[in-house]
Amino acid sequence: MQSSNIHGGDLDEISRVYGIDKSRIMNFSGNVNPLGLPESVKAAIAKNVDIAVNYPDVSYKSLREAIAQYTGARAEHILAGNGSTELITGFIKAVMPKKSIVVSPAYSEYLRILEQIGCETTLSPLSAGDDFIPDINALPIADDTDMLVICNPNNPTGTYVTAEQIESIAKKHKNLFIMIDETYVEFADVSKRISAVELTAKYDNIGVIRGTSKFFACPGLRLGYGISGNTDILKKVDSGRDLWSVNVYAELAGCVMFTDTDFIQKTRELINSERARIREEVDKIKALKMYKSQSNFFLVRILDGSITAKELFLRLIKKNILIRDAESFPFLDETYFRFCILSPKENDILLESLREVFD
Ligand SMILES: Cc1ncc(COP(=O)(O)O)c(C=O)c1O
Q1: For residue 359, how far is its CA from the centre of ligand 1 (angstroms)?
Q2: Ligand 1: which of 107, 108, 182, 221 to mutate, judged by most atoms within 8 Å of the beta carbon?
Q3: Is the overall model pTM greater than 0.85, yes or no?
Q4: Is 60 left (phi over 0), alpha (psi -120 to 50) or beta?
Q5: Cβ of 219 below 6 Å from ligand 1
Q6: Measured in angstroms, how far is the CA atom of residue 288 from the centroid of ligand 1?
Q7: Mean pLDDT of residues grouped by 10 in the chain (359 residues)?
Q8: DSSP assignment, residue 155?
């Protein structure tokens, strides 16, 4: 494995390779909310630590109702999963597409699973010339394309398509199942109308996947959910996996976190203000181009060729700053890196380091 391309979540590997204690790494690569686990979740788990003696509710009824309240979807259209990862695999294996399109560069798991099932996949490129803004009219959808995968907002570009654009595809291509990974959607400005959750009640060719790892800062809990109005597909996803894949602590956390309006509000305020501040600061560094993001991370291009993203990664990791060298993503090269928003203090440390390297 190329050390600078280690998966965003793989702090253990980074810590082993570079000999840095995990707790000292400023992880600008993981895309996790810097506010940390909501206090409400900590308190609920601490108070109920003994629930490990029980199995989870096999139908996850209360959890699905909590997600329904939070998202506005119907509980019977919701499936809880072991992180969004379980649902990505689940939806792909339930639909079993023969021909798919993945809007790319994107999170690598979609392609990995599509390849695993032998699906012929076309990566539909987002172009640097268009600032990676998706053009839905350019999607090479053929009559026999049976799956379209969109990460929205997209990892690693932070760009997005609107629900309206998704609806136009769903309406026009009835035999196409559109799988939308909304892992980062809660970080986006609500006025952009990105989420396709509402559409799931109207169209049965849409599946929305959401996680809690990033926004609710709990990747170790492993909780995600899928939403689709297509109950046949949902049943297939459900029957294709093991029983009790969401453990009791994740089940409990999910019943608490979605009602923590204080945490949700604080996160939105922090991300919105830091997103604007970081943009302003990076825009002043002439050697860098930062793409517009509706997520909690930014894709950045090094314009002056003075250093590659991998070299930058190596310089920063010496200061315990972990960024993501984005070279391994399709259609990107050694000039791209990604970093996420952490606390204002940590963001200042990164900004200062970038100025030192490029000014
Ligand atoms: C776009 C996207 N989807 C899904 C995941 C996996 O998330 P989870 O922890 O919910 O399985 C990630 C993790 O980085 C991601 O970036």
Answers
A1: 34
A2: 107
A3: yes
A4: left
A5: yes
A6: 27
A7: 56 89 94 98 98 98 98 98 98 98 97 98 97 96 98 98 98 97 97 96 98 98 98 97 97 98 98 98 98 98 96 96 96 98 98 96
A8: T
Query: 144-182 as b/e, with b when 16 or more CB fall inside 10 Å?
Result: ebbbbbbbbbbbbbbbbbbbebbbebbeebeebbbbbbb
- Please identify, among 210, 234, 259, the residue that sits at the C-terminal boundary of a domain: 259
Domain residues for the domain of 323 are 3-30+262-358
Report how far ligand 1's centroid is from the alpha carbon of 267 (Å).
18
In this structure, are 225 and 277 located in the same domain? no
Question: Ligand 1, from 67, 111, 155, 247: best to mutate by most atoms within 8 Å of Cβ?
Answer: 155
Cα distance between residue 278 and residue 293, in whole Å: 11
Instruction: Provide the domain count of the chain.
Output: 2
